[in-house]
Amino acid sequence: MKLFLAPGACSLSPHIALHEAGLDFQAVTVDFATKRTSDGRDFNAINPKGYVPALELGDGTVLTEGPAIVQYIADQAPASHLAPPNGTVARYQLQEWLGFINSELHKPWGPLWRATATDEAKAAAREAILRRLTFIAKHLEKQPWLLGDTFSVADGYLYVMLLWAKFTAVDLSSLPVLEAYRDRIAARPAVAATHASEKALRSQK
User: What is the pLDDT of residue 128?
Assistant: First the structure.
């Protein structure tokens, strides 16, 4: 498998999942300015949507969209317990969390990354993000992970959003449960290995 990524982008979520699952894969970076990959390919030909992540399977099939990719990864390593078994209520709860993070938390970050966004748009985005994070924090007051006692790919996705908060002036000081949760994930060996890998990928540019 090849994971097409940009260090620090939302592709960090499937990158973490691959390390957590212990699967063999190749990390391939994407230069968004040129749309070229580090292995010399045209990224638009791989994923016409033009953004990461994308996961190329051994037979050439390409999966896009983070929530789909992380579930595929989890299903390749069921012993990792990164996703509940298909057909269970817990699996649908995982999909519920992935959908919520993707549409209600990930997307509102857009204005905070755009240099052309107005101060008013950025303030509105931070307000919306904090409202969603407050909801999540209340859920995590009752249990260590989004699905209960087991770390899942949804936790890996949420972790990326919490890292972004550091760089976009989204103040989490009023939500200490999320700060502790973020730090708990950062301390996981697979997550530390993923960060080390992305640091190395950055240095290769």
Answer: 97
